[in-house]
Amino acid sequence: MSAPDTKSAPDTKAAASAVPDVRRRRRPVTGSLLVGGLIVALVFGMALLSFVWTPHDPTLVNASARLEKPSLEYWFGTDKFGRDVFSQILVGSRTTLFVGFVAVGVAALVGVPLGIAAGMAPRWLGELLMRANDLLLAFPALLLAIMFAAVYGASTLVAMVAIGIASIPNFARLIRGGTLQVMKTEYVTAARAAGRGPFAIAVRHVLPNVSSLVIVQASVGFAIAVLAEAALSFLGFGTPPPTPSWGRMLQESQEMLSSAPRLAVFPGIAIAVAVLGFNLLGDGLRDRFDPKLEDRR
Q1: Which residues, other chains included, contact 127 with Cβ-Cβ below 8 Å and sequence gap of 6+?
Q2: How far is Cα 49 from Cα 37, in angstroms, rounded to an integer?
Q3: Residues ≥6 apart with Cβ < 8 Å to 104
Q4: Judging by beta carbons within 10 Å of its beta carbon (0-12, 13-18, 19+), is residue 42 exposed, middle or buried?
Q5: According to DSSP H, which parts of 68-140 are helical?
Q6: CA distance 87 to 224
Q7: Which of 17, 86, 126, 141 has the highest count of CB atoms within 10 angstroms of its CB?
Q8: What is the rounded CA–CA span in Å between residue 177 and residue 119?
Q9: Which residue in 225, 226, 184 sits closest to 205, CA to CA?
Q10: Could you tell me which residues are beta bridge partners of residue 84?
C-alpha cells in the first residue's frame, strides 16, 4: 500500500481558502437602507398617486374656503387662496422628483465620462481636467441658478440645469478616484496586454466596477437636488406658479406663520422627510456596495 499523501489535505485547504466565500460577501440590509428605501418609496408613491388622484384641484382658487383647518374634506386644510394643501403636497412631490431626476441625470451624464477620462488619461492631463472641474465648485447650485434665472428667467428648466451643472464636480471627482483604483488591477493590465483600446477598457472594465459609486452618488445627489429645488422655489427662482412646489408653499406661508403655522409645517416636513430618505438610502447603498467596510462589521 502506498503511503498517504500528506500534502493533499493542506493543498485542499489552501484551494478552499482561495475560493471566494459568497455568503461572506452578502452584506445584510442595514437599517439606513431599509428606512431610506421605505421613505423614498413613499415619496415616489405620492408622486405616482398625484397623476391619477388628488382630493381637490391643487391650483383651484376658492375664496370661500380660505384658511380652512384640517378636516375630512380638507385633510391638511387650505391656504390663503383656498387651495387644498394636501393636494399641493402630492403634486409638489411630482415636481420635486422630476427636478431631481433631470438634475442628477445631467450631472451623471457629464460627470461620469469626465471622471473616467481623467482617471485613464496621463497624470498631467488628468490633473488638468480635475483643476478645470474644480472651477465649478466655486459656483454653488443656488448661486448658479440665480445667475441663470437672471439671464434666462426663473423656470423649472433653469433650476434643473443649474442644479445638474453644479453637481458635476461631485460625480467627476468620485468616479476619477474609483477609476484610478480599477486601472491598477491585474485584469486591466491583462486587457492592455491583449491589445484592448482605452474605450473598450472603459466600457468593459472601468464602468461596471464604478457603477456602484454612481448609484450611491446619484442617491446623495438626489437629496441635494430636492433641497436645492425647494430653496430656489422659496427664493422665487424655481418652479413658477401655478405649478405646486414645496419650496414655494413655504414662501407663501411666511406671512401666515402667526395665524396658520400649519401652512409652513406640512411642506417643511415633506422636504425634510424626502431629504432624509435619500440621504439614508445613499448611506445604506454605500454600506452595501463599499468593500472597504466589509471588514469593519
Answers
A1: none
A2: 18
A3: 164, 167, 218, 221, 222, 225
A4: middle
A5: 85-120, 123-134
A6: 24
A7: 141
A8: 7
A9: 184
A10: 78
Supply the DSSP symbol for 255: G
pLDDT in tens, the chain (297 residues): 444 444 444 443 433 343 334 334 556 778 888 999 999 999 999 999 999 999 999 998 888 889 999 999 899 999 989 999 999 999 999 988 998 899 999 999 999 999 999 999 888 888 888 888 888 877 777 788 888 888 887 788 888 888 899 889 999 999 999 999 998 888 888 888 888 888 888 988 899 889 889 998 999 899 988 888 888 888 888 888 888 999 999 998 888 888 889 999 999 999 999 999 999 999 888 888 765 544 434
Q: Identify the H or E element spanning 284.
A: helix 262-289
